[in-house]
Amino acid sequence: MERSMLYPVTTRTRRAVSLDGMWNFQFDPQSQGVNDGWANGLPAPLLMPVPSAFADLFTDKDSREYCGDFWYETNFFVPGEWEGQEVVLRFGSATHRATVFVNGQEVTRHEGGFLPFNVRVTDLVRFNQDNKVAVLVNNELHEAMLPAGRTTTLSNGKKMATPYFDFYNYAGLQRPVKLLCLPKEQIVDFTVNHRLDGADAFVDYTVETTGEKDCRVLVYDKEGNLVAESTGKTGTLHLENAHLWNVHASYLYRFVVQIVDGETLVDEYTQKIGVRTFCIENGRFLLNGKPIYLKGFGKHEDSDLRGRGLDLVTIKRDYECMKWIGANCFRTSHYPYAEEMYQMADEEGFLVIDETPAVGFLESITNFLAANQGNGKQVGYFEKETTPQLLENHKQALSDMIRRDKNHACVIAWSILNEPQCTSEGTEAYFKPLFDLAHELDVQKRPRTYAIVMMSLPNTSKGQQFCDFISLNRYYGWYVMGGQNMVDAEAAFHQEMQGWNQVLNGRPMIFTEYGADTMPSEHKLPSVMWSQEYQNEYLDMNHRVFDAYDFVQGELVWNFADFQTTEGIMRVNGNKKGIFTRQRQPKDAAFNFRARWCSLPQDFKK
Ligand code: BDP
């Protein structure tokens, strides 16, 4: 059960109870909690909502910027009728690492802040009584982890996190926590792969269970009619006249997976699944065999007060804004998002490029500027003492992400890193096992990519060879040759594009980032950098370049909305490259995009 990434559901054989709400919370700057028995109850707790990041709820700076150990604790009641079954705690995430205690006893540890984990607590809980769960969370950054950064101690003894990435180091229990009751013999995993044949679809499936009993899979259409059925742990479901899942035209079947013992139902799991194919052919992305041009955003999980905490209200608003503007795709920059975001993409018919938390693998104080990359002279990020441990953590995150997200119709590609240092010797040895692993684990063989930083060029990037399609983050006209220099930026951009043309070998290219910081308060005629007018001129220039190349098959602008970062001279209370403000209201550029994206056909450049 520990390994299961299945989204918790309640069925005839399963119970999923939310533990979200106000928990007890306490900072532990001296890391004394374990020795002092805090797992049995916090000595001086505050109240803290789960899910949420803690940072923006405080009014004092020390609490907001807190780095180190901190605890969450609550009581939960385990119903007596669950006795004889498996009881499991399921954390949507704990950022960045956690140790979980139940009734005072340590039950698990987990590294990585953006993916779920389970822990079986059957033998520790008291039935028909209250039980205590305490979670020791730690939000320090270091170089062997995803995302990367470092932690230092200030002269006042407090720890400070320095991210090597351009988003605020929000932490805590930022996703739902659930208490599950499952049968002893249970479904652990379920995997689908789709094939189309004329009007019909075939779904090859595999069920993984903890026992030997047989399995059955039933498929229901939207009206609730049973349309396909198969027995066995592996098999094929035949959908006649299949309703395919499509962009902005979603169709989800309800798959019911069962373990059966003769007539007895042992376990039952359900998932809504869209049937579609996605592949690359002749330099085109093909969704159900038809070309599709990707239009949309790099995003963040980021909103006022909640930080990176799951907020269904924000998710709903984001999809409404994305539909209004004519987008069809986004990248989960720079970490796997909460599962609820992918469920909504399945429902709304959006394409998702799913990214691991591998960000910040490039050393420089403002690493996101990366102005000196590509000269081949730096010590590579992948030739350090920390590299073997980093690679292990990276493999774990990649496997968990694929295991969690593989059945989502919305997920069309894996982004394995964002802006890594990729011009030095260690690059190939680090990249190859990860790209191979993604291919091996994903039965749908989704295309793999990574977002390539400015100045990592076709002839200097040692990582691009592993990509099924090329993803560029480019800032011509912003970090490079901005302002009046935009004229030269355009020419330099074209020159780089010609270089890429030489190495693509039929692979499509997309832009995973391009953008200009823009203050919604600033209007200026003629334009200056940071004004709304400049953002539009910058975008028009970039779109002129994209439109000149047939191999450019997608544009994901940076960023959907303004977002919080670490404070500093480069950022005005956060990154302002949003097309929407942090409150999800349009800047002028949003209307520019709406005009462009609503008029570009889905198969633009077919
Ligand atoms: C890129 C990073 C992204 C930053 C962006 C920027 O991938 O995380 O936020 O630049 O500078 O380097 O706005």
Low-confidence stretches: 365-378
* Number of continuous helical runs: 8
Residue share in β-strands: 25-35%
Structural Rg: 24 Å
Major sheet: order of its strands? 23-24-25-26-27-28-29-30
- Shape label: globular
Q: Name every ligand kind in the structure.
A: beta-D-glucopyranuronic acid
Keywords:
606 residues; alpha/beta; 6-stranded antiparallel sheet; 8 helices; 30 strands; globular; binds beta-D-glucopyranuronic acid; hydrolase; Beta-glucuronidase; glycosidase; beta-glucuronidase activity
Describe this structure in words.
This protein is an alpha/beta fold. The protein contains eight helices and 30 strands. An eight-stranded parallel beta barrel has the order 23-24-25-26-27-28-29-30. Strands 3-2-4-9-6-7 form a six-stranded antiparallel beta sheet, with no helix packed on it. Strands 1-12-5-8 form a four-stranded antiparallel beta sheet, with no helix packed on it. β18 (253-261) and β19 form a beta hairpin. The longest helix has 19 residues, at 387-405. The protein is globular. The two termini are 45 Å apart. The relative contact order is 0.11. Bound molecules: beta-D-glucopyranuronic acid (BDP). The site of beta-D-glucopyranuronic acid (BDP) has 10 residues, from loops. Beta-D-glucopyranuronic acid (BDP) binds next to loops.
How is this fold's topology laid out?
Blueprint: E1 15-18, E2 21-28, E3 46-50, H1 61-64, E4 69-78, E5 86-91, E6 97-102, E7 105-111, E8 117-120, E9 129-138, E10 149-153, E11 159-163, E12 177-182, E13 187-197, E14 200-209, E15 214-220, E16 226-231, E17 234-239, E18 253-261, E19 264-273, E20 278-281, E21 284-287, E22 290-291, E23 294-298, H2 312-325, E24 329-331, H3 339-348, E25 351-355, H4 387-405, E26 411-418, H5 427-441, E27 448-452, E28 470-473, H6 486-503, E29 509-513, H7 532-547, E30 552-558, H8 588-599
Parallel strand pairs: 23-24, 23-30, 24-25, 25-26, 26-27, 27-28, 28-29, 29-30
Antiparallel strand pairs: 1-12, 2-3, 2-4, 4-9, 5-8, 5-12, 6-7, 6-9, 10-11, 13-14, 14-17, 15-16, 15-18, 18-19, 20-21, 21-22
The structure holds beta-D-glucopyranuronic acid.
